[in-house]
Each structure stands twice: as structure tokens, then as C-alpha cells.
User: Fold Universal stress family protein from Oxalobacter formigenes OXCC13.
Amino acid sequence: MFNKIMIPTDGSDPSTAAALEGIAFAADNKSEVIGVYVAPEYQYPVYVEIIPPTYPIEEEYDALMRKVGMEYLQPMKEAAEKAGVKFSSMILFSNTAGSAIADAATEQACDLIFMGSHGRSGLGQLLLGSVTTKVLNLCQIPVLVHHMKKKK
Assistant:
């Protein structure tokens, strides 16, 4: 039914758990998976006229975020290999993660986006919830929102 499924993650435990459920869903549907991590865009310090020597340059930031993203996507890659699911990954840079996910899913001709509703706790939970809401509002393709079962 679904040929290509996009599964975003923020690297948190609940987000990773939802992503692994997405891999299982993809295996059941014999679908290909594209794992996605959206990193914030590089921000130049605005409080000084020159960049402090301890502040990372844009290339260092880019390399670090790509490394972090690959670490976050690794559990998905391993699960996909075990399940026999074709897997590829993308690291995106955007301050509007919801828009980046929706745009990437369209550009990659995905049939479905599978994502958790809350990947973090506290304020992060609110922010990721808003990412899910943004994706739901922007996408013209189906979005399957995975809700984690509460531990008793």
C-alpha cells in the first residue's frame, strides 16, 4: 500500500521508539524507508561584532550536526537491515522542522510520513508536538502519528 515512508526522528528515546515502530510498519507493508533528522540552522552570534574563537564556525557546526544526525538515525538503519527494509537517510538543516519534513517527503515522493506525537518531555514535548501538528497541516500525503503507550 505504501511504497516509500518517511520517518523523522529527533534522537530522543520516545522518538527513536516511534521510529522503530515505523520500521516494523514498513516491514509489514514491504515499504522503503527514508529516515530524517532535522538540525537547526547555523546561527551567527548577534551579540558581538566578531565571532569568538570558541564559537564553532559554520563548517564545524555542519559536520557536528551531520554526525549527531547519523547517530540518531543509526538505530533505524540497524532495525531496517534486520527487517530486510530498504533504508536511506537524510540530514536536513532548518529552523522550521515541520516544513522541512513536509517538503522533503514531497520531494522524495513518499506515500506516508510515520512520526511520533511527542519525542521529548517538558518544553521539548510541546515543540515536537508542534512539529507534528505543522507536518499534519502542511502535508498533502498521509501522516501516521504514533502515540506511545504509557508505562504503568
